[in-house]
Amino acid sequence: MRKVIIIGAGLSGLACAVTLAKAGRECLLISKQVSERAQSVLAEGGINAALDVMGENDDAALHFEDTMKGGCYLANEEAVRGLTENAPGIVRWLMGLGVPFNMENGRIVQRAFGGQKKRRTAFAKSSTGKMIMSALIDEARKYEAAGLITRKPNREFIRLITNGSECRGVLTADTRSGQCFEEHGVSVMCTGGMNGIFPGVTTGTTANSGDAAAMLYLQGVRFSNLEMIQYHPTTIAIAGKRCLVTEAARGEGGRLFINKGGQRYYFMEDRHPELGNLSPRDVVAREMFFVRRESEGEGVYLDMTGIDESVWLRRLPDLREEIKEQTGTDAKSEPIPVKEGIHYFMGGIDVDTRHRTSMKDLYAAGECTSIYHGANRLGGNSMLGAIYGGRTAAEDIIASYGVQDGQEEKESVHSLSEEYAAEADTGLIYRIRDILLSGLGIVRNESEIKKSIAELSLLKGERQYNLRERARIELADALLECALIRRESRGAHYREDYPKRDDERFGSMTYAQYENGRAIYGFKGRSEGEA
Fold first, then answer.
1. What are the Cα distances from residue 251, in Å, to 59, 110, 326?
2. Going by DSSP bridges, is the β-strand pair 107-108/255-260 parallel, antiparallel, or unpaired?
3. Which secondary-structure segment (H or E) carries 136?
4. Which of 61, 176, 358, 491 has the least C-beta neighbours within 10 A?
5. What is the mean pLDDT of residues 372-387?
6. The model's pTM
7. Domains delineated in the chain
8. Which residues sit opposite 515 in a β-bridge?
9. How far apart are CA 367 and CA 66, in angstroms?
């Protein structure tokens, strides 16, 4: 019987661990930080499910339709159907675990979120991620007490242990002592998005270095959809990152404007009258970019002054306090300046509908994967995708390997070799970031992307790099190459030189895979390397 090793203790990792444990399957839950400090805690707005409690005749088929349309039909259709059909059961399960969703008259209240015509986002004020994480942490502790979940925090993922194209386990290091550990078994990556590849300009936790994704890529794990990077329209700059102003603010009545001729111009309502400020995130972010350019750099503001005091108290109290703490402004009294910030990575590790990767005995779930969101994630689908993905991976492991105890290899302890111990140089990290931002902005074109690829190529030849640095450079190259070969505009990928969508030529996901010292790029379902 092979051990089950989960890397990452956020929503997807906890959901995977709890599902395994509930079936009687023991697992290790390894993470850099404790669950209470995972990226998932920062999620604010809510979780989607077609509960149909708002009298709008919502159902899973409509949720499926909105998700596919929002992702520009680039997501895995079978996977999205499973996600949306299971969503109501997941929300009710979370409620049963004690998540304090906002309620009225004994039923869950759901709010409007971007890209959706129905109110289907269940929420716990403006701290939904924190509340769901608290409930899952408590559930996991029950199984820890029973010996079915063994937590190993303060451990950093270093690399996979492989045997050809098969994953045999993981190598991790204690972040305090530097001691190295080999764990052999079936592995599940739940490591979150690639925030650390873009330090300082994402809403994600600064603890996510991006090294896990980079190392997996260098070790031959196939990635897909890498060009699809979501810029959230409403963020504010704080030390080391961007602070998210949740989409729920617009769902409750917040309006974007720019000063034009001495007047407030509420551009989303004028240019996209159907959904207005709740248009999909790629649409809103792009309009912000264009309206600023038209106004020669005039700033965009979020006006929340029209939101009723009772709504602030019942639905957005944490957001109001956070904005006041970070900016000194009471958003109830005056508009706040906002700017687009990198928020979510629709692309990542390529997985199938059971969350198996291209490498045998390696699974992945959560934001580190590419499966549910296509070219643009709908707000409220991220926590849903993480929980459903973690559960799905666990269910396949149980079906494939069973739950009975058996002979397992013990943990191997030794010192971390110099090859893996060296950190990436901070200056290099920021140089790579700036090169990527030049080519992978909200609006892109071939000239800028090729310029970034050329700059990265020159960077490769400057000196000898350690393993982490090499991995980071190769992953950065893959991001740019995938953006280059998608010669169309679709969702978060907007090409000024190819402004229209081309379903016939580009209606499938890109892929990138590093094998035998060379990278292969193409479109899934086509011949290798075909663009």
1. 20, 10, 22
2. unpaired
3. helix 128-145
4. 176
5. 96
6. 0.94
7. 3-228+346-418 (3.50.50.60), 232-342 (3.90.700.10), 423-501 (1.20.58.100)
8. 518
9. 19
